[in-house]
Amino acid sequence: MTLAIDGGTPVRTAPWPSWPPPMDDAQRALVTAVLDSGRWGATQGGSACSDLVAAFARRSGVSHGVAVGNATLGLFAALRGLGVGPGDEVIVPAYTFVATATAVLLAGATPVIADVDVADLHLSAPAVEAALTSRTAAILPVHLAGSAADMDALNAIASRHNVAVVEDAAQAHGATYRDRPVGGLGDAGVYSFQASKAMTAGEGGLIVCRDQAAHEAIWSVCNLGRSLDGAWYGHPHVGWNLRLTEIQAALLLPWLDRLDDEIDRRNTFASAAERELAPLPVTVVPQPPGATRDSRHLLMLRLHVPFDRSFLLAAMAAEGVPLDGGYPPLGTMSALTEAGARVEPCPAAEAASREVVWVRQSMLMDDLTGATHLAEALAKVLTRA
């Protein structure tokens, strides 16, 4: 069978669902109302931002939240609000987006890049234990691809060593761990509303936390050092303007009503894909222990045969079934090491960078013919890759 990259007929010619989807009626109505009100900024008396924060905090099982301009700033603000700064170290997983580490640098601390679990690719508790020093101030687990990290194990380490836990939940809107929402399991959790995420306003982020004192400190970081009950021109702390706009909140708030249906749709696709891929030397990367609801931001696939990564990605794209090559290990990024990041041994992350590819969220929103096309294209391309 001739591959499409060699001039053959592609497996799929139909487009995949676009992301983000078009505005629905509820979004359009609320965005229009905000635009017509003229109250576009978060401090102008509108209610979209405050309503979004309240709804997201409830959904995360906590009482407090702060809406911010993006999740990188959210991680920075959470760390600073929890007292992390120059001289401190923050342990981050080696297999994640670079912003997890650069947010630590932005806070003035040192990222310590630790390995991930060899199977599920989430931050490894034994690797965290090995990376701890007297300077460790926080652990920053990532709920990778929409699946919850093993929070019981990581929280236990944090409790024993009296360090903070900040959850990077950028990819995990609606995910649960032991039937509890992610984001509210550590000292703070941070969500992303960037364009590729399960809820998006193009950009944006939201911090949730359960402790009132932590909330007040994080809020101050995001609001120019003000205090919640202080004067407008009173700035008892150093802070920045990191706020979300009312227009962005208006796009996001109605999304909460359809989020669960979209998660169900992606999980249905993922289950079908796993069945279709069963005859091939390809497996779906499993969830960590305790993960009970995967929001399926990505479907991560591990290939169990040697393959030429560049060729496979190009050939799959030609077949009409594009895949993503995934993350390089953070420790291989010279910009991070030159900025002072400390790198622990990370063989599992290095293996993942060779063996794992991704199916993007927009493709998971397709009907089940998409799962069939995924398996057919991989079966075809793996004969050559």
Question: What gyration radius follows from the Cα positions, in whole Å?
Answer: 21 Å
Average pLDDT level: 98
> What series of H and E elements makes up the topology?
HHEHEHEHEHEEEEEHHHEEEHHEHEHH
DSSP summary, beta strand count: 14
Overall body shape: globular
| Residue windows where pLDDT falls under 50 for at least 5 positions | none
The CATH superfamily of the largest domain turns out to be Type I PLP-dependent aspartate aminotransferase-like (Major domain)
**Which structural class should the secondary elements be placed in?**
alpha/beta
Q: What distinguishing features does this structure have?
A:
385 residues; 2 domains; Aspartate Aminotransferase, domain 2; 8-stranded mixed β-sheet; 37% helix; transaminase activity; 3-stranded antiparallel β-sheet; alpha/beta; 14 helices; Aspartate Aminotransferase, domain 1
Q: What does this molecule look like?
A:
The chain is an alpha/beta fold and 385 residues long. The chain folds into 2 domains: 25-257, Type I PLP-dependent aspartate aminotransferase-like (Major domain) (Aspartate Aminotransferase, domain 2), CATH 3.40.640; 260-382, Alpha-Beta Complex (Aspartate Aminotransferase, domain 1). Helices cover 37% and strands 15% of the residues. The chain is built from 14 helices and 14 strands. It has helices at residues 25-37, 48-59, 71-81, 99-106, 125-131, 151-161, 212-222, 246-252, 259-277, 309-318, 334-338, 347-355, 361-364, 369-382, and strands at residues 64-68, 89-93, 110-114, 136-139, 164-168, 176-177, 180-181, 188-192, 205-209, 282-284, 291-293, 298-303, 342-343, 356-360. It has an 8-stranded mixed beta sheet, with helices on both faces. It has a 3-stranded antiparallel beta sheet with strand order 7-6-11, with no helix packed on it. The chain has a 3-stranded antiparallel beta sheet with strand order 10-12-14. Helix 4 links the parallel strand 2 and strand 3. Helix 1 runs antiparallel to helix 8, helix 3 packs across helix 4 (99-106) and helix 3 packs across helix 7. It is globular. The two termini are 14 Å apart. 51% of the residues are buried. Keywords: Pyridoxal phosphate. It comes from Nonomuraea jiangxiensis. InterPro entries: DegT/StrS_aminotransferase, PyrdxlP-dep_Trfase, PyrdxlP-dep_Trfase_major, PyrdxlP-dep_Trfase_small. This is dTDP-4-amino-4,6-dideoxygalactose transaminase. Residues 1-21 are annotated as: Disordered.
